[in-house]
Design brief:
The complex is a heterodimer of chains A (about 120) and B (about 110).
Chain A: E1 4-7, E2 10-13, E3 19-25, E4 31-37, E5 43-50, E6 53-57, E7 64-70, E8 73-78, E9 87-94, E10 108-109, E11 113-117
Parallel strand pairs in A: 2-11
Antiparallel strand pairs in A: 1-3, 3-8, 4-5, 4-9, 5-6, 7-8, 9-10, 9-11
Chain B: E1 4-7, E2 10-14, E3 19-25, E4 32-38, E5 44-51, E6 56-59, E7 62-67, E8 72-77, E9 86-94, E10 101-104, E11 108-113
Parallel strand pairs in B: 2-11
Antiparallel strand pairs in B: 1-3, 3-8, 4-5, 4-9, 6-7, 7-8, 9-10, 9-11
Classes of the chains: A mainly beta (about 120), B mainly beta (about 110).
Chain lengths: ~120, ~110
C-alpha cells in the first residue's frame, strides 16, 4: 500500500478552469502538507494542516483552497487556473510538526501531481 | 530570511567512487536538517534527519554531517552505485511553534555512470 497517495498524477487543463487534487495518507499521521515545485525545482510550502486544522498558510493566491475532511485527507482545490500555476504539486505527511519532536517530523511524500495549464 | 544553497547543482561520477554533496544555510538557528532524494516522476524519499543537537547521522552507505556554527551540512555517499542516481535535496527546519516548517535547497542532480 502506498503511504501517501495523490491523484491524479497528471492534470492538463485550460486556463480559467477549476480543478482539485486529492491526497490521502494511511500512516496515521497528524500533519499533512501541500508543496509546489516550480520549474527551477525549488519546493515551497503552501499549506500545512494538523489534525484537520490549518497551521501554515504561506502567501498563495486565494484561488487555492485546501480542505481536510479528516486527518488522513488533505485535498487542494484550485479556482480559475492560470498559466503560472503549472508546476508539480506534492502532498506530504508527518507524525507531527514540532521543533522538539525529532524524527517525528520526518515527512513522507506522495509521487506528485504534474499540473499543466494551457 | 533563511536560504538554503546546494553546490554543485549537478554531479556526474563513475560507479564505485565516494562523493560528497554540500548544503549551506544562512541562518544557523535551525532545529533540524533533513536530506531527501527525488527520483524522476516520483515523490521525495527521506534519507536522513539530523537533529540540531547531533553532528551526524548514518544509514548504510550514507553519512550526513551538520555544522550549525558554519551553516553547513554534507551528505557523504560511499561506493556509489548507478541506483544512487537521483536529485538530492537538503532542507532545514526553521521557525517556532505554528510557523515551524522546512526550507528547501534546489538540489544536486547526481548521475552515477556504470
Amino acid at each position: 500500500d502506498t503511504a501517501v497517495s495523490q491523484t491524479p498524477k497528471y492534470l492538463v487543463t485550460q486556463m480559467g478552469n477549476d480543478k482539485s487534487i486529492k491526497c490521502e495518507q494511511n500512516l496515521g499521521h497528524d500533519t499533512m502538507y501541500w508543496y509546489k515545485q516550480d520549474s527551477k525545482k525549488f519546493l515551497k510550502i503552501m499549506f500545512s494542516y494538523n489534525n484537520k486544522e490549518l497551521i501554515i498558510n504561506e502567501t498563495v493566491p486565494n484561488r487555492f483552497s485546501p480542505k481536510s475532511p479528516d486527518k488522513a485527507h488533505l485535498n487542494l482545490h484550485i479556482n480559475s487556473l492560470e498559466l503560472g500555476d503549472s508546476a508539480v504539486y506534492f502532498c506530504a505527511s508527518s507524525q507531527t510538526l514540532s521543533k522538539d519532536a525529532g524524527t517525528k517530523n520526518i515527512q513522507y511524500f506522495g509521487a506528485g501531481t504534474r499540473l499543466s495549464v494551457l | 530570511k533563511q536560504e538554503v544553497t546546494q553546490i554543485p547543482a549537478a554531479l556526474s561520477v563513475p560507479e564505485g567512487e565516494n562523493l560528497v554533496l554540500n548544503c549551506s544555510f544562512t541562518d544557523s538557528a535551525i532545529y533540524n536538517l533533513q536530506w531527501f532524494r527525488q527520483d524522476p516522476g516520483k515523490g521525495l524519499t527521506s534519507l536522513l534527519l539530523i537533529q540540531s543537537s547531533q553532528r551526524e547521522q548514518t544509514s548504510g552507505r550514507l553519512n550526513a554531517s551538520l555544522d550549525k556554527s558554519s551553516g553547513r551540512s554534507t551528505l557523504y555517499i560511499a561506493a556509489s552505485q548507478p541506483g544512487d542516481s537521483a536529485t538530492y535535496l537538503c532542507a532545514v527546519y526553521r521557525g517556532r511553534d505554528s510557523n515551524y516548517q522546512l526550507i528547501w535547497g534546489a538540489g544536486t542532480k547526481l548521475i552515477i555512470k556504470p
